[in-house]
Amino acid sequence: MEIKQIAPGFAASPQIRPEDVGRIAEAGYQTIICNRPDGEADDQPRSAEIAAAARSAGLNFRYLPIKPGQITDETLHAFDEALVSCKGPILGYCRTGNRSASLWALGRSKMLSPAAVLAATSQAGYDLAGLRPRMEERFGGAISSSVPRKYDVLIIGAGSGGISVAASLLKRRGTLDIAIVEPRDIHYYQPGFTLVGAGVFQPEVTQRNMEEVIPEGVTWLRGAVAEFNPERDEVILEDGARCSYTTLIVSPGLKLDWEAVQGLPETIGKNGVTSNYRYDLASYTWKLVQEMKRGKALFSQPPMPIKCAGAPQKVMYLSADHWRRNGVLDDIEIDFSLAGNVLFGVQDYVPALMDYVERYGIALNFSHNLVKVDGNDKVATFRVTEGEQTRLVEKEFDMLHVCPPQTGLDFIRASSLADAAGWVEVDPATLQHVRHGNVFGLGDACSTPNAKTAAAVRKQAPVVAMNVLSVLDGQTPAAVYDGYGSCPLTVEKGRIVLAEFLYGGKVAPSLPTWMLDGKKATRAAWLMKERLLPPLYWQGMFRGREYLAKPRMTFQKIGGE
For this protein, what is any one GO molecular function term (predicted)? Predict the structure, then answer.
């Protein structure tokens, strides 16, 4: 928590958590205003939790959610009313503090000059220069003729896709003017969450400060996207700033839709309900696994697409292996309820997985989609599909590991870049947008029919980098992505079934079978996952080192054409 004082009676802050409220009260604040809508990010505490903590601490709480880039006159009026009616000092918070600071700045601009308002916000650490035209209009002056900064390449998102493609671009052409738009301060190595949930990794090894991973020479724009305007080659950020580009790369990831399961947001992280899909919950998974000696363990998987389709069963196998090693497996009933009708999408790897399903005595339940969780009574409700009929089935549990439903991010879904399903609509081979030739996409946000994994990003980044350079040089993109994806299925501690495949589920091993047979559970694949893949991620992909990732060059369209 970092409170930034803007005026004597008002301060702004990035996202706070319930445990921060006591310190906020100790600092003398009397009112907390939440300017962030619930469900905007997967690791975000709900406003009701903050409100309850505020009441316990004797503070007032107001929920005034603002979507990025949507500060209307009505919301300004509501915010001004809150400043007047609520007891001060007041702390406003959102994802980064930018929205709360922007609300204060625009509200004050009717009484104070833009220069004075911007000086106050700048001193507090918020650069709101992009709001100057609107502030001048509210103050009564002429609208300034501000021109947005233009970049050769503008990248949306500093996840594995954004960082990798920036590094690949700079490796090929170090003179490029590149900027990355990213609101988060921490980058997470998400493939490591599975091993945190199994007690193999400590949580800290899966995160690094964002400034450490963004390549040197790339401008970091700390903000969130409010709107795309591809017709004008512009992106508008949540504080109103406009960024112009010659080429745009969109790689913001996807949305973990916890709200789609009734009761899940209220109980996740307690009552035996956990998920390795969140950094702050993976350790809770390991705690539950260690503590469980008997009872029923449920593992769920929603409809596709999801990132790392093997993750929901990886945690199940590793948990079962721990219980087996500790002699309690026979006292634990394991249930895997998944919305699909197959254990894994590439049939070649199913026999090896079924060996472990049978070894651990796992009950497989296909066509079971989790729709509700009652944490207090420890009951999970599934919608079961049987032909054209559906019915609801309730299952009691002592431990429940949830894989949340996953969709395109809201600002992508609302944009002209999205397809009907809410994903960035790109050509599956060149990863070029189907309607805007200077726009590319990669990673989890894309419409490509491949597995959403870091391994896919490793192959996509060089393709996008080469094709972006082609567009900058006035040429036709010629590098193609073949749909490669990889899923190291951790079936026990020390052994992995390494699934590698292309578009259409074609098996595509990176190494000869005599070195590593991916259709079998091997120790070699485990050592690769545990020892080799993390440095390949941090020192390989993020440094533009494209090991076994050289793109194929062709003009032939592949994969879904």
Answer: transferase activity
